[in-house]
Amino acid sequence: MAEITQEIKPPKMQKTRQRKDPKISVNAVQLPSFSIGNNSVSFTFSQYVTVKNPNRAAFSHYDSTIQLLYSGSQVGFMFIPAGKIEAGRTQYMAVTFAVQSFPFAAPNEASAATMTIPTPTTTTGPIGLVGGFGGSNNGYRVGPTMEIESRMEMAGRVRVLHFFTHHVDAKSGCRVTISVSDGSVLGFHC
After folding, report:
1. Exposed/middle/buried for 167, CB within 10 Å: 0-12, 13-18, 19+?
2. pLDDT per residue over 108-148, tens digit each?
3. pTM assigned to the model
4. CA 150, CA 172: separation in Å to the nearest integer?
5. Which residue range or ranges hold the Late embryogenesis abundant protein LEA-2 subgroup domain (predicted)?
6. Cβ neighbours around 85 below 10 Å, total
7. Could you give the 3-state DSSP secondary structure of residue 27?
8. Domain residue spans of the chain
9. Cα-Cα-Cα-Cα dihedral sign, residues 76, 81, 84, 90
10. pLDDT tens figures, 26-36
């Protein structure tokens, strides 16, 4: 008699999709109000962002933060309340807060930060090459500038199949160049 053998394979388990960190994109930065005097500056800061959840499950984020730094020191801070971004969705957020008066440029940086150019200068090179200043707005604006840094962090979790929980983080850091003469945003790089 012939012997029949059959190999029994276990059923294939469907592989769960790997979790992905959400993506933060900064769409715009504005300073609706700006005041400078007596070597100090104060303003209202607005940042408009989109947070995209690429996962197949909802992203529940905890209380998050946005920080504003000038010369490495924190000058502004705001909490972003906890929330949820559904699977595959994009959430639009606007953050606006007042930044209290702080000293404009440390003594060793004062000469570089408040330097002026006596005659208008036009450039065809990349932004940031006019006399050591930040953005030049295609050569149309020249004058003293200041640079601030914005840092946004969102931490939370993605729960897959109501059983597996994965920790995810989203971070964004932007350098914003501001014209000291009128407080206009000359550019930002994230």
Report:
1. exposed
2. 444 344 333 333 332 233 333 333 334 444 545 556 999 99
3. 0.72
4. 8
5. 49-133
6. 22
7. strand
8. 23-106+148-189
9. negative
10. 999 999 999 99
| H or E element, residue 110 | helix 110-113
Coil, helix or strand at residue 102: strand
Place of tokens 């060793």: 108
The third-level CATH classification (topology) of the domain covering 23-106+148-189 is: Immunoglobulin-like (2.60.40)
Helix (H) or strand (E) holding 101, with range, is strand 90-103
Sign of CA dihedral 71, 74, 80, 82: positive
| Distance from the first to the final alpha carbon of the chain | 75
* Virtual torsion, Cα 95, 101, 107, 109, nearest 10 deg: 20
| Residue of 26, 7, 18, 1 lying closest to 150 (CA atoms) | 26
The token pair at 3 is: 């012997």
* CB contact at 8 A, 68 and 148: yes
Amino acid sitting at position 158: V
Report whether 151 contacts 69 (CB < 8 A): yes
Give the torsion sign (CA, 99, 100, 103, 106): negative
Is 5's pLDDT higher than 50?
A: yes
> How far is 48 from 95, CA to CA, in rounded Å?
6
Find out whether 57 and 16 touch, Cβ atoms under 8 Å: no
Q: How many CB atoms lie within 10 A of CB 157?
A: 16
